[in-house]
# Entry
Amino acid sequence: MEKPRIKVPSSARKGEVIEVKTLIKHPMESGQRKDAAGNLIPRKIINRFVVAANGKEILNAELFPATSADPYLIFKVRVDADTRFEATWHEDGGASVSESAEVKVG
Amino acid sequence: MSETKEWASRRDVLQGTAFALVAAAAGLLAGPAAAGVDEARKALALLTGGAVPKEGRITLTLPQVADNGATVPLRVAVDSPMTPQDHVKAIVIVADGNPAPEVAVFRLAPEIGVAEVTSRVRLAKTQTVTAVAVMNDGSAYAAKAEVMVTVGGCST
# Structure
């Protein structure tokens, strides 16, 4: 799986709502497309995207073939203290990749 | 499904399994044809536990016209304090004109503090996208958006 990206502000005020932007390169093969010979290309997508903040799971997204290729997922979160976000992308078949980012909150 | 103890209630597991079964059935039957309003409604009903959604509190934003159905921006936000006593448990999104109706399920914990997610979705053709927010007390709120799609998004 490709190395994903996660972007957060480097610092924030206590109680501020910030945006966490995530991006991963992935074809999100829907299982609907056919190859040149007319055979269905099998489905292979990222089916789950999970984010923990300081070890506590805050977002657990179940994704379907309706998510576009190169999933670009943004979510808002309110931060009250220094926070380390860890995001994990799970692919059909069990492979996964994680990436993390930190926000200093004062 | 999340492995976290406080989320994986038996009800959640049953609904998740049922949701997957509906998705599988829709996939087997549909092919490139649209799943339709009925399949989308069934998929929603399974996950919301039959709660009849009310209007309000949830906003679903998509462009009125999408010139590329392969990547259509979607934003969903729910007016909720996200406290342990009053929070969004899940946001379910379905599309009634896609080969399979399920678009995404965003499960949230109150610690997130605010309920707003943005993504990019594939829309096969002009259709209605529906988002339902299921709250911790079992109530549900729905919003719809009609999107006109000029170039369908399922071939890429």
